[in-house]
Structure formats: structure tokens, C-alpha cells
């Protein structure tokens, strides 16, 4: 289990009190693993019943099961890397674990059945990843359309995208300030969205129909956060491989 992924999955069910507890848990994950329900309620200035209701909204029978899952399956690495280069193996391993934890089959089935697939990356690096992914789809007779700019994205959503299509949005942070209006329009038009974002509690993932996560740990250099795009390439390659396996299964059944 990953706490951020669970929160994104159930975000629409959470009230203001739930989000207050969630914020504390995200900021103190290691401490929460050792807490009793009474201790967590005290630290968040809430009640045991509030904590219990939250864990049930997240899909657990109670706080004990939630805490066990948090201890047993949290993919976060407790030993931080000492350099940007040494983070590479940690991020790639984390991305692989995240992918294996997701329900991939519904995504693959929707990808296969979608009449049209539109792809948008919130930055040039993300668009480079999508270009590479789309080239890999040609041999599979699948032709996603890459939207090169925000203005093109807006026009396509307003005039062309239909509920039997699929929109893939790749973002490093999941911050949708620039694309919030068009993303909300997708939701209003009931257009399926596959969000691909860094592992965090983010607005884009909470609004999407499907979520896939990668792990890319930034380092701050000269006041700027630097990320590696390699985990995104890895995730998209994993998605392509799953689709190839799916097509082979279909061929065998026919």
C-alpha cells in the first residue's frame, strides 16, 4: 500500500476533517507507523472515531489493518540516497514497485478500446517521453495523438474529445494550475483521464479516472529542483509491455 496513492483514489470521499488527519499522516508517516489510534487522534486534535472512519474510507477494516499495511508495504525508502546519481536505482526500483501495485488491466482494456487517445505532457520533458511512447505504439497499430501545446490541448478538449476516447496527462508534480480549467472540462464532459504523475498527493491524480505513479526524487541545485525523466520512460515502457501481453492474450483466445 502507498498512502499517497490511496488518498488520491479516495480523495472525493474525504471531508475537511479527514484531510486534516491525512495531512498529518503524510508529514509524519514514520511516526504514525508506531502510534496507537488514541495517539494519532490526540496528535491531530480529533477523535478515535474520526480516525477509524478515515481508515474505513481508505478501504480498511480498522486502524490496526491500516497500520499493518502501512508498515508492510510502504515503498518509501527509509535510507535516503547520498547523491543524485545514487538515487537512480532507488527511484527505478520504487517506480517498478508502484507499477506492480496498480490495477493495470482496467487501464489496458480502456487503452485498447478507446476510439481515440490524446496525450499531453505538462513540460517538454514529459512530451519527449510521450513521443517515444507513441512511436512504440505504431507497430501495435495504435496511434495516440500527442498535443504539443496547452492551446492545442484546450481546442481538442473543447471541440473533439468524446467519452469513448482516452486522455493521458503526464506531469512531474501533478500541479495543474495551468491546465486546471481544461482538466475540469474533461471531468464535466465525462472524458476518461489517465494521470501519470510523481508519487504525491496531487490534484491531477485526484481528478483522473486512472492513476499511474512513478518515483523521481529531486535534488535542489542552485535554487532549482532537478528531476530525472528516466522513471517516466520506465513506467511508459512497462505500460507498453503490458499492452503487448494483452494483445498476445487476445490472439491466443481467438
TrEMBL record:
InterPro entries under this entry? Homeodomain-like_sf, HTH_RpiR, RpiR-like, RpiR-like_SIS, SIS_dom, SIS_dom_sf, WH-like_DNA-bd_sf
- GO molecular function list: carbohydrate derivative binding; DNA binding; DNA-binding transcription factor activity
Gene3D superfamilies, alphabetized:
Glucose-6-phosphate isomerase like protein, domain 1, Winged helix-like DNA-binding domain superfamily/Winged helix DNA-binding domain
Q: Which UniProt keywords apply?
A: DNA-binding, Transcription, Transcription regulation
What is the protein name stated in its UniProt record?
Answer: MurR/RpiR family transcriptional regulator
Give the CDD domains listed for this entry: SIS_RpiR
Q: Which Pfam families match?
A: HTH_6, SIS
Domain HTH rpiR-type residue range list = 1-77
Taxonomic lineage of this organism? Bacteria, Bacillati, Bacillota, Bacilli, Lactobacillales
Q: Which organism is it from?
A: Marinilactibacillus psychrotolerans
Record's keyword annotation contains Chaperone? no
User: Per its UniProt entry, which superkingdom is the organism in?
Assistant: Bacteria
Output the GO biological process annotations, alphabetical, semicolon-separated.
carbohydrate derivative metabolic process
Amino acid at each position: 500500500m502507498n498512502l499517497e496513492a490511496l488518498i488520491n483514489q479516495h480523495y472525493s470521499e474525504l471531508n475537511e476533517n479527514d484531510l486534516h488527519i491525512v495531512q498529518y499522516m503524510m508529514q509524519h508517516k514514520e511516526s504514525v507507523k508506531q502510534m496507537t489510534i488514541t495517539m494519532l487522534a490526540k496528535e491531530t486534535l480529533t477523535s478515535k472515531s474520526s480516525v477509524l472512519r478515515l481508515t474505513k474510507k481508505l478501504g480498511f477494516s480498522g486502524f490496526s489493518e491500516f497500520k499493518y499495511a502501512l508498515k508492510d508495504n510502504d515503498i518509501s525508502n527509509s535510507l535516503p540516497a547520498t547523491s543524485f546519481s545514487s538515487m537512480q536505482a532507488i527511484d527505478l526500483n520504487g517506480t517498478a514497485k508502484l507499477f506492480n501495485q496498480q490495477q493495470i488491466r482496467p487501464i489496458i482494456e480502456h487503452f485498447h478500446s478507446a476510439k481515440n487517445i490524446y496525450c499531453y505532457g505538462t513540460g517538454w520533458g514529459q512530451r519527449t517521453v510521450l513521443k517515444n511512447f507513441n512511436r512504440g505504439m505504431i507497430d501495435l497499430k495504435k496511434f495516440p495523438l500527442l498535443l504539443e501545446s496547452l492551446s492545442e490541448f484546450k481546442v481538442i478538449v473543447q471541440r473533439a474529445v468524446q467519452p469513448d476516447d482516452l486522455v493521458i496527462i503526464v506531469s512531474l508534480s501533478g500541479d495543474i494550475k495551468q491546465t486546471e480549467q481544461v482538466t475540469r472540462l474533461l471531468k464535466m464532459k465525462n472524458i476518461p483521464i489517465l494521470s501519470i504523475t510523481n508519487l504525491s498527493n496531487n490534484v491531477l491524480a485526484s481528478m483522473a479516472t486512472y492513476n499511474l505513479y512513478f518515483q523521481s526524487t529531486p535534488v535542489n541545485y542552485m535554487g532549482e529542483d532537478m528531476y530525472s525523466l528516466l522513471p517516466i520512460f520506465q513506467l511508459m515502457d512497462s505500460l507498453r509491455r503490458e499492452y503487448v501481453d494483452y494483445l498476445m492474450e487476445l490472439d491466443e483466445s481467438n
